[in-house]
């Protein structure tokens, strides 16, 4: 009984790690742009497709495919950033919604057009089970967990000490003042966006071995799982996002075990509604802060 | 919020897909001499693979018929409409075929939920809806003497399938403890309903019951529950694309060899077995057809399909190919492409399909066998073909 509970909590933490890596990018982009990136899940999909292409067509190893997946997404994100995202600085909120939804459709349908709409089979990764704490887990899931921790420690250090990190915090607090003191706001937006997209891609590549299936529409579900997480965490709040992702991951896992798998997808928004009733400004604060 | 956005996603992608496809199927054949046949299938979305196979199957049959001079000199013109595997889009697709393309015959859809939604649309327009791949019994419970005069089905139902699988699992393999893990749709749920109807006859009991949404990727919680409740077999009426994921997670939880998958969901393809050979070993599946089926006509189809598309056909390719041929014979016997005449011919037809002779009962349901197979040493092995006369509830 207790061991089942423990196992499910660990499962939830692994799922939460995947959500956290995707969501943190989305929340950082919100921080500097004040716009929700509805195309965020597509970068997760692009990363996975890049890695699938690398292993299936180019015959590269899984490790190399991680690099290919992330780098190809960075290239796409850079182009989208130059053409779309940096123009959104100071634009009204609805243009952000329209633009990112448009980008999502274009990316998704381009991939379907090029590779076909069917499911692809991802063969790389470390799927052998290992036994810990009395239950088994694929090695890949341990990798996901470790990478998630590294990403968050890295981000924490970056936003605290690096020049880009400080600029990001500044932009998220007051765009006008940044202009006055000479911070290149569009440049900060572009870099934040590319970083966020790269993290989403990384998450995609890391999950591909355990999720096995790769298809054009896979990003949509991720976007909608991420949305309640970043709202719960407090939009723009990195630490809050991490906690919210873990809460959602664990809640989903427990619901799937004790209530039924069919209710899993309702957990995100149900938790969000409950949380908003209790703390309407998000779990932590209204202040967008890195 | 999400609902609006998802719908917008769907609408726009539907528009994109249908324009491309619409442009592709434009032909210059004279309308008076052609038979307009529409195919409703999921060409995008999670079931796009099924749609692709369905279309290829239908195209292959149409090409052969047209190359041989058509049916009584009339050529078949094929139209395609994307249902995206959802009832809403399936209904729009059906209306588009009827109103814009003015088809007289429709074959569709793969998904039972979509077919159920299409039935009243076809009935209103008096267009012959010939289903080739949906297995929910309700479709023909409510057809023929049950209601819809324009719906026919050339596919065995879940009732037949559930009975065949439950019987084999209990009698040949000695399973008594089962867990359910099926897709949350009319297909997944109805198959389980019928399994429950027959399971007590074989002293079987169900220990847990879960349904997954399309696109679900994490089954660890449910599989852990199944591991702990000691079920010997998982009753899985699922989607082909999800089977490899579940198989891999069975392996991950150390359940491979301890629990057997039974049901349907392309357990027999090379891709699925390769995902987790140890987890798939011993799996039992009932399918309407599979490429290994041993009959000359079936083998010839596999060969022709593989030559045309560089991949082996699946069940959906076969049933669509077969159903186009069935329709062609009905039109031939009717002597014209008049909808009413073809419908009459279909009710009386004796059609020789690669899996046996096909006739329709008074519910417009084809009498067809289910093929039972078991995965042995990483390869599907056919255990037999079973036909069951359906017992319709009195209405």
Automatic annotation (TrEMBL), chain A:
Its main location: membrane. It comes from the Bacteria. GO terms for biological process: amino acid transport. Keywords: Amino-acid transport, Cell membrane, Membrane, Transmembrane, Transmembrane helix, Transport. GO terms for molecular function: transmembrane transporter activity. It is a multi-pass membrane protein. GO terms for cellular component: plasma membrane. The keyword Ubl conjugation does not apply. The keyword Transmembrane applies. Pfam families: BPD_transp_2 (PF02653). The chain crosses the membrane at residues 12-36, 66-85, 97-122, 142-161, 188-208, 242-261. It is found in: Cell membrane. InterPro entries: ABC_transp_permease (IPR001851), BCAA_transport_permease (IPR052157). PANTHER family: ABC TRANSPORTER PERMEASE PROTEIN, BRANCHED-CHAIN AMINO ACID TRANSPORT SYSTEM PERMEASE PROTEIN LIVH. Belongs to the binding-protein-dependent transport system permease family. LivHM subfamily. This is Branched-chain amino acid ABC transporter permease.
TrEMBL record, chain B:
SUPFAM superfamilies: Periplasmic binding protein-like I. Residues 1-31 form the signal peptide. Residues 34-378 form the Leucine-binding protein domain. CDD domains: PBP1_ABC_HAAT-like. One of its GO terms (biological process) is amino acid transport. Keywords: Amino-acid transport, Signal, Transport. Belongs to the leucine-binding protein family. PANTHER family: LEUCINE-SPECIFIC-BINDING PROTEIN (PTHR30483), PERIPLASMIC BINDING PROTEIN OF ABC TRANSPORTER FOR NATURAL AMINO ACIDS (PTHR30483:SF6). This is ABC transporter substrate-binding protein. The lineage of its organism: Bacteria, Pseudomonadati, Pseudomonadota, Alphaproteobacteria, Hyphomicrobiales.
